[in-house]
Specification:
The complex is a heterodimer. By secondary structure, chain A is of the alpha/beta class. Chain A is built from eleven helices and 14 strands. Chain A has two domains: about 220 residues, 3-Layer(aba) Sandwich (Rossmann fold); about 50 residues. Chain A is globular, with a radius of gyration of 21 Å. Chain B has a two-stranded antiparallel ribbon with strand order 1-2. Chain B has a two-stranded antiparallel sheet with strand order 3-4. A two-stranded antiparallel ribbon of chain B has the order 5-6. The radius of gyration of chain B is 26 Å and the shape is elongated. In chain B, helix 1 crosses helix 13, helix 2 packs antiparallel against helix 11 and helix 4 crosses helix 7. In chain B, about 55% of the residues lie in helices and about 5% in strands. Classes of the chains: A alpha/beta, B mainly alpha. The site of adenosine-5'-diphosphate (ADP) has 11 residues of chain A, from strand 2 and helix 1.
């Protein structure tokens, strides 16, 4: 199973939302990182064939996904970033409906739906109407529907939005297991969602793929450039105005500031090993989350 | 596929607009029923003693009168009707043969008799009837128009029986109360359009469109669900009308022989205009296109005789949309007369 993106480009009017994206996906977990507006959703929609590329194409095992049509969609599971439900359906109704669209037989669908509701922690709410659900419950139901057909290609657009910390951990563990032999592509602007579980990280900025590789290989780019400085409040403000600051935390009366800089930024600064968050800040410093 | 259709229905009925529209539709149905079916001259009965019945009692009275003539609809039966009519409602009989002033709530059996009363014989008929009382005179003595004149090719006698209330129902349902069609259509459009546009307005499209059948069978399911919805809704409204009508007026006459719907479209003097079927005092008025009827209004009015002097026929009769003046009527071939007759039988 190999999904290839070949110079995939999407233009909205004159705005180029995605610029010639090349990538190869094989079973494994792929983290698509980027600030809001970077083009993550657009890229995932292209991969799901609900948006047509302006140019370029996506191929599964050498065949254009649009031409594969039903066959491609049969192998696909998709959690959109924004989507709606039928408010009067119960969680079970909804999953059974999606299962019928996915062509699953009725008996299997019932079992599968019940199992997935258990997995995403909605077993108790399975008979309740979706209009009574909270945002997080809807998100979990969305994840469940994506998994109904055991997709070979699972596309998740900001899957952790609305999940509480405990649910995030549970979700990460589930994905780690699922990605062993399936292609999982998940987008996020929250680094910790993909840190340590993604086999490969893709960093998307302003419609271009700026970085791609394993976590270790891409963070090595800023090795030796990350520093921690123990300073006063005034000095911290000065540092924030001068350098890219990844993090700052209070310790006693002082503030520990984590800075990215080619040179030693402060006389008492000590070098620290970089992490993915640092790299993200390096690329998206100054942009809104 | 069945599952998908079922879910489409579930979606449709999950929408407040659709439910609301259905509720409004039921409400409108009852208003229309009230206005058109439960409130016409045919649901009142004017009795020989001058009292007036209404509603179910009126219907039952009309039924009992019609019941007296049930069976073969022959010239003899017509003669009996004329005779009974003359005796029970002398005033209206006089009206029918003189100035056209008959009560619209007369028993339905009598209401169409002008068709058999040739205006030039009115005086004679009236005299005869008054003189004979309840006795049935031979047809020729009355000078009634024979059934054969209308149904020259019919080999079997027509069957007469009560049909008025359900005839009224069907006329109402497919006639004026077909006004119900508009709200029904609106509900159908609402429901069906939400079946299609709902996926976008509810933002479920990205979910649907990435499933195996989301772009293919789903459309078929939606189309079938829409078709089924439209059919069921139409059936539902019809059933609603049937039940309401049946509860109100009973079932008698619903299965009347088709032949009893024989087009007895006798018309009276229509001073104001045409189409005043329900106007009190005038049983039937319709427009005449024969060019020989005064003002284009057809009636068996005596004055009319002057306009068709050459014709032994002295009335204009409506045959659905084909209006024939007696004069021109005569000029139809026998075959076309029978065709006309049959048509009027079916569509009346
Ligand atoms: N339908 C659209 N029409 C025009 N511009 C769009 C449309 N969808 C997205 N964009 C633009 O494309 C860019 C990428 O958007 P998106 O893919 O949603 O980013 P992300 O998911 O990374 O936040 C944004 O600048 C956005 O404004
Ligand atoms: Mg997005």
């Amino acid at each position: 199973m190999q999904l290839v993106l070949d110079r995939l480009t999407k233009q909205y009017g004159t705005k180029i939302a995605l610029d010639r994206i090349d990538a190869v996906f094989q079973p494994g977990i792929y983290g698509l990182l980027g600030a809001n507006g970077a083009g993550k959703t657009t890229l995932l929609r292209l991969i799901c064939d609900i948006l047509k590329p302006t140019s370029g194409e996506a191929r599964l095992n050498g065949k254009n996904i649009g031409e594969l049509g039903e066959k491609y969609r049969a192998a696909l599971g998709y959690l959109p970033q924004e989507f709606g439900f039928y408010p009067n359906f119960t969680a079970t109704d909804f999953l059974l409906y999606m299962a019928s669209l996915k062509g699953l037989n009725k008996r299997y669908a019932r079992e599968k739906a019940a199992g997935l509701l258990e997995t995403v922690g909605l077993k108790k709410e399975q008979g309740k109407k979706i209009k009574t659900f909270s945002g997080g419950m809807k998100q979990r139901l969305g994840i469940a529907q994506a998994l109904l057909n055991d997709p070979e290609i699972l596309i998740l657009d900001e899957p952790t939005a609305g999940l509480d910390p405990k649910e995030r951990v549970k979700f990460r563990n589930f994905i780690r297991a699922y990605g062993e032999n399936k292609i999982v592509i998940l987008s996020t602007h929250i680094v910790t969602d993909v840190e340590h579980i993604a086999d490969e990280i893709l960093i998307l900025k302003d419609g271009s793929l700026v970085k791609k590789g394993t976590e270790n290989s891409i963070i090595s780019e800023i090795a030796g450039c990350v520093w921690e400085c123990r300073v006063t409040k005034q000095e911290a403000i000065h540092l924030e105005n001068t350098f890219t600051v990844c993090n700052s935390k209070s310790e006693d009366e002082k503030i520990v500031v984590r800075v990215i800089s080619d040179q030693k930024p402060w006389k008492t600064a000590t070098p620290v090993p970089p992490c993915l968050e640092d790299l993200y800040m390096h690329y998206f410093h100054g942009e809104g989350q | 596929m069945l599952r998908m259709i079922r879910f489409e229905f579930q979606k449709m009925f999950g929408r407040a607009v659709v439910i609301g529209a259905l509720a409004v539709l039921v409400f409108i149905s009852f208003i229309l029923l009230k206005a058109y079916c439960f409130n016409t001259s045919r649901t009142t009965a004017y009795l020989p003693d001058g009292t007036t019945l209404s509603g179910r009692e009126a219907i039952l009275y009309h039924q009992s009168v019609a019941g007296k003539y049930e069976g073969d609809f022959t010239d003899e039966a017509v003669a009996r009707m004329v005779s009974d009519f003359a005796e029970e409602y002398p005033k209206d009989f006089y009206g029918m043969t003189h100035d056209g002033s008959v009560n619209a709530s007369l028993p339905s059996a009598y209401l169409y008799l002008p068709m058999f009363l040739p205006p030039q014989n009115y005086d004679e008929i009236f005299r005869e009837a008054a003189g004979k009382g309840t006795a049935i005179s031979p047809l020729t003595e009355y000078g009634l128009i024979s059934m054969r004149e209308y149904m020259s090719l019919a080999d079997e006698p027509l069957q007469y029986g009560y049909s008025d209330s359900w005839e009224l129902f069907f006329l109402s349902f497919f006639g004026p109360a077909a006004a119900i069609a508009t709200p029904v259509l609106i509900v159908i459009i609402l429901a069906v359009s939400t079946a299609f546009s709902g996926e976008y307005s509810m933002k479920t499209a990205p979910l649907i469109l990435t499933t195996k059948y989301g772009k293919s069978r789903q459309i078929t399911a939606k189309l079938l669900a829409s078709l089924l919805f439209a059919t069921l809704l139409m059936g539902f409204v019809f059933a609603l009308f049937c039940i309401a009508f049946g509860l109100q007026y009973g079932l008698a006459g619903w299965n009347a022989d088709m032949q009893t719907n024989f087009g007895l479209c006798g018309s009276r003097y229509c001073p104001a205009g045409i189409g005043s079927r329900s106007a009190p005092g005038y049983a039937d008025c319709f427009s005449c296109e024969c060019g020989e009827c005064p003002g284009g209004i057809a009636s068996a009015n005596r004055q009319f005789v002057d306009f068709c002097p050459s014709s032994p026929w002295t009335g204009c009769w409506g045959w659905d949309s084909n209006i024939g003046c007696a004069g021109s009527f005569r000029r139809y071939s026998t075959q076309s007369i029978s065709k006309l007759s049959r048509r009027s039988m079916i569509f009346r």
